[in-house]
């Protein structure tokens, strides 16, 4: 009986205390209702974001965000051969700290000076390659002492649009702030659809003149999502397919 009486007294005290407890309860309910509504709104905003933009926001390297990026394909662009077709697979297993004989493997003559100039101008420099064994490309870049200029390497099999998207997600650099140099003209359309500026490379590989021409076009790019119109830069007599290059190394 004593317990029941005490409980009755407690309940009476709570509800008779000038209604303050009830008012506090109502206030708390209103507060938590507002919190729930805000959480729902934030969830809807996040779900409405483009996936790639959301990933870029969460993975952005603050050093790269807002800067301009220059991307080079490796095959036929940085060097005059194809990793898959012309390089012995043993280069995947070499110790890059050793004095490795590269034989005829070397970058185009003006590559080092071009990369050095771009680095001094503050560009983010990246390279991509879709060879089957990515370790070969990575090792060759280091053995040629080109890695000192390169901020990000994306070497893995698959369409090169995947490499561009990966660079965007890793760096936070907008597609319209990317300038892409590559020998391949046949696979560039999907990349152009991302609003990336593309500059073709001919049989001479990367040269200072070609890069300067690409930069001039890059600086004239509109600040919009309008896709560039693709015009083949070379006629069929000049464009060389991968299978046409069969030099053994």
TrEMBL record:
Alphabetized Gene3D superfamilies for the sequence: HAD superfamily/HAD-like
SUPFAM superfamilies attached to this UniProt entry: HAD-like (SSF56784)
Keyword Membrane belongs to the record: yes
GO molecular function: acid phosphatase activity
Annotated TM spans: 26-46
Pfam families recorded: Acid_PPase
Stretch forming the signal peptide: none
Keyword set, alphabetical order: Membrane, Transmembrane, Transmembrane helix
Listed name of the protein: FCP1 homology domain-containing protein
Organism listed in the record: Clastoptera arizonana
């Amino acid at each position: 009986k004593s317990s029941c009486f005490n409980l009755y007294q407690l309940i009476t005290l709570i509800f008779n205390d000038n209604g303050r407890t009830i008012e506090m309860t109502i206030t708390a309910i209103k507060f938590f209702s507002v919190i729930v509504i805000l959480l729902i709104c934030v969830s809807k905003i996040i779900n409405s974001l483009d996936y790639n933009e959301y990933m870029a926001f969460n993975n952005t390297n603050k050093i790269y965000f807002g800067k301009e990026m220059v991307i080079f394909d490796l095959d036929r662009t940085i060097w005059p051969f194809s990793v898959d077709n012309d390089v012995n697979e043993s280069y995947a297993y070499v110790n890059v700290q050793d004095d490795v004989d590269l034989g005829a493997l070397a970058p185009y003559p003006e590559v080092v000076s071009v990369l050095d100039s771009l680095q001094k101008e503050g560009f983010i420099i990246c390279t991509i390659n879709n060879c089957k064994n990515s370790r070969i490309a990575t090792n060759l870049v280091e053995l040629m002492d080109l890695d000192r200029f390169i901020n990000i390497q994306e070497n893995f099999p698959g369409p090169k649009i995947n490499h561009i998207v990966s660079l965007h997600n890793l760096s936070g650099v907008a597609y319209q702030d990317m300038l892409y140099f590559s020998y391949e003209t046949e696979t560039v359309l999907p990349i152009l659809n991302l609003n990336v500026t593309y500059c073709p490379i001919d049989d001479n590989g990367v040269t200072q003149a070609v890069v300067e021409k690409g930069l001039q076009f890059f600086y004239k790019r509109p600040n919009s999502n309008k896709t560039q119109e693709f015009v083949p830069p070379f006629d069929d007599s000049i464009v060389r397919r991968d299978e046409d290059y069969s030099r053994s190394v």
